[in-house]
Automatic annotation (TrEMBL):
Source species: Streptomyces filamentosus (Streptomyces roseosporus)
Superkingdom assignment: Bacteria
Membrane topology: Multi-pass membrane protein
Domain ABC transmembrane type-1: 89-299
Protein name: ABC transporter
Keywords: Cell membrane, Membrane, Transmembrane, Transmembrane helix, Transport
Lineage of the species this protein comes from: Bacteria, Bacillati, Actinomycetota, Actinomycetes, Kitasatosporales
Pfam families: BPD_transp_1
Transmembrane portions of the chain: 33-59, 89-114, 126-146, 166-185, 231-252, 278-300
Gene3D superfamilies: MetI-like (1.10.3720.10)
InterPro entries to which the protein is assigned, alphabetical: ABC_transporter_permease, MetI-like, MetI-like_sf
Principal localisation: membrane
Subcellular location: Cell membrane
Length: 315
């Protein structure tokens, strides 16, 4: 009798090849730092340097003219004692939570549907993604015209909208902001869920069909668990976007009525370009960065996203 030893030799040789570093010019192995250098330089110039300047300005008094004067913790002390700032931060959190609660289920359902093979699915998906191609300013101007209390839809449907002034009450004004954000940004998150759904192995659904599971059970027991990573990624994008919403508030409500829709990003704009207090505005901007980063890190930690690993290692 003879023993087959070739597989063991092949296995040892394969292991040695995996451990051996790739020779230059062979095209194998990990890319070097030079590949990331352009992106790192771009990020440093247009993200880290401005952020450092904002940190410095947050400890100064500056009206945009002349040289900034060092003020120590003056801006931060005023910031913590400012009731409008506290209210604006609370409104930012409210708008963010409402956006997540509304957009997430819509995005998941539409993304799963768009990943299928229904008739006319491609045409309907293309039409649905149109808002994603428009700028935030264009979308806000469009909805401001549509919801104008004098000439828009509310003025023609008083039986539904009452006096038609949706921007005159805090509840309806916040509802408009959530509606407009949902209309524009849900297609982006739908696209994420569409791609993630198409990446789910079809063998899971085939096995479920053999076991007699219908579409509803397949959705809750296969699709949703497989979309866990995408849910976390999409939610983080929504949170960061919600906390930094500015254009929509500026064009639709301008922080009104009063300060009822003045979120932190818009309050920063008021301090900088209306009050010309760039030191206070820089402190607000830095606070927003810290809050958004902290919320994102907490979400990643609580969801276990940082412990997840791919089945395939990247190049």
């Amino acid at each position: 009798m003879t023993t087959a030893t070739a597989p063991a030799v092949d296995s040892e040789e394969t292991t040695r090849n995996r451990r051996r570093p790739a020779r230059p010019g062979t095209g194998a192995g990990r890319p070097g730092f030079a590949w990331a250098a352009p992106a790192a330089v771009f990020f440093g110039l247009f993200a880290l340097v401005p952020l450092l300047l904002v940190v410095v300005l947050s400890f100064t008094r500056w009206n945009g003219l002349g040289s900034p004067e060092f003020a120590g913790l003056e801006n931060w002390n005023k910031l913590l004692d400012d009731p409008v700032m506290v209210k604006s931060l609370w409104l930012s959190l409210v708008l963010t939570v409402l956006g997540v609660l509304v957009q997430t289920p819509l995005s998941i359902l539409l993304g799963v549907w768009a990943a299928g093979h229904q008739r006319n699915r491609a045409v309907l998906s293309a039409i649905y993604f149109v808002p994603l191609l428009l700028s935030i300013t264009a979308v806000s101007v469009l909805w401001r015209a549509l919801l104008d209390p004098n000439f828009g839809i509310p003025s023609q449907a008083t039986w539904l909208f009452g006096d038609g002034n949706l921007f005159g009450v805090q509840t309806s004004a916040l509802g408009v902001l959530v509606l407009v954000s949902t209309w524009q940004f849900t297609p982006l998150h739908t696209l994420l869920y569409q791609g993630a759904t198409r990446a789910i192995p079809q063998v899971l659904y085939q096995a479920a069909q053999i076991d007699g599971a219908g579409r509803v059970r397949q959705f809750f027991h296969i699709t949703l668990p497989q979309l866990r990573n995408t849910v976390v990624t999409s939610t983080i994008l929504m949170v960061v976007g919600g906390l930094t919403t500015f254009d929509t508030v500026l064009i639709l409500t301008q922080g009104g009525p009063g300060t009822d829709t003045t979120n932190s990003a818009y309050y920063m704009y008021q301090k900088a370009f209306k009050s010309f207090d760039f030191g206070m505005a820089s402190a607000i901007a830095l606070l927003l960065v810290l809050v958004a980063s902290l919320v994102s890190l907490v979400m990643v930690r609580l969801s276990g996203y940082d412990k997840m690993r791919s089945t395939m290692e990247g190049v």
